[in-house]
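Researcher: Let's walk through a ligand-bound prediction step by step. First, I give you the protein sequence. Second, the SMILES string for flavin-adenine dinucleotide. Third, you return the three-dimensional complex as structure tokens. Ready?
Model: Ready.
Researcher: Here are steps one and two:
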Amino acid sequence: MPECIVVGGGAIGLLTARQLFLAGVDVLLLEKGRLGGESSWAGGGIISPLYPWRYDDVVNVLAERSKKIYPELTDKLFDETGKDCELINSGLFTVTEYQQEIIDWAKTWSVDASFINDIDSVRAIESRVGDAVNQGIWMPDVMQIRNPKFVDALRASCEFLSIPYREQTAVEEIVIKNNKVCGVRTHQETILADKVIIASGAWSAQFSATESSVDVVPVKGQMIMYKGEPDLVKRIILSEGHYIIPRKDGRILAGSTLEKIGFDKTISSDALDELHQAAMELIPLLENLEIERQWAGLRPGTEKGIPYICQHDDVEGLYVHAGHFRNGIVLGAASAELMADIVLGREPWCDVAPYTMQAEH
Ligand SMILES: Cc1cc2nc3c(=O)[nH]c(=O)nc-3n(C[C@H](O)[C@H](O)[C@H](O)COP(=O)(O)OP(=O)(O)OC[C@H]3O[C@@H](n4cnc5c(N)ncnc54)[C@H](O)[C@@H]3O)c2cc1C
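Model: Step three, the predicted complex:
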């Protein structure tokens, strides 16, 4: 019988299971489909919130810690598995007018950020930008990770470390008796455990213990990918919620839509047109590149983007680790450390109050 079951094998479940396993917990990770096959595969992997100055400090606390963890984490994953997550430092240029708020934010968090207000200086950063990308804020230290490679490396690391996991295993019910967790029921069997962590992404409100208390809803994001050459575009460029992410092998992602229409992952030609139009304004040469692929993922949406990282209020042994919305990768590494602190009863590395069920999310 495992000590702790993690329900959901996205980045959040994988990172949580890894943390607990490395701390000596007998953990079991259950995933209804393929490990990392949902939002964590579909995302852009920018290791920064978009417009971080608009977020609550409690989101930035997690983001800033994760930024420090990622280089070491991806090195470890490489040593364990030989898999390269393609963590690269692309920098992020955000089209925006000067705002004191941004400068203040950068100072507070010691983030290297400077305003650029003429097109020649912008083109010295990214030569391919269109005329509309003529002023904004440049953050040279922003990294990105390549999502499919990251989840693949996490999965391979589960194998390397022998972290127990099962795929194609949907948890149908969390078994609770006298307000205490006893385990989970899958379609095949009941698996007993004293601790259960819900890390089920957009699906985290599906269990009876969470449906009225965990406010996480699916928010669809569509993305397109161009086939380019390495170094054709070098920087992440963001404007009005649309962004370009150049990958190491020359592929270029353009994202993303924000659609609150339930558990629906269909892709649409309207979204393709919207993303392509916006992308061409940022980087005109994209007009001539082939769009190789389009996909959608379901973000675990919360109103303010503040995740639940907590013990359940009413059920002993039940924990919730969900609702990272647009920032599950950038927040995930630090968030998993905090979840492990809470589950293990260790001194938490930061204040846990903002992530409890009672807090605003
Ligand atoms: C288009 C797009 C772009 C994004 N860009 C970025 C970005 O640049 N930077 C960033 O930080 N974040 C980004 N995100 C957000 C990020 O991808 C998510 O916040 C993150 O992946 C959430 O991870 P998760 O593990 O909570 O969810 P998921 O990856 O969705 O994993 C949840 C898992 O739980 C499983 N599950 C559900 N119910 C059950 C059950 N009953 N039993 C067993 N398993 C179950 C699911 O199958 C799934 O695999 C983006 C997302 C999208 C869609």
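Researcher: And what stands out?
Model: The chain has eight helices and 19 strands. The chain has a mean pLDDT of 97.
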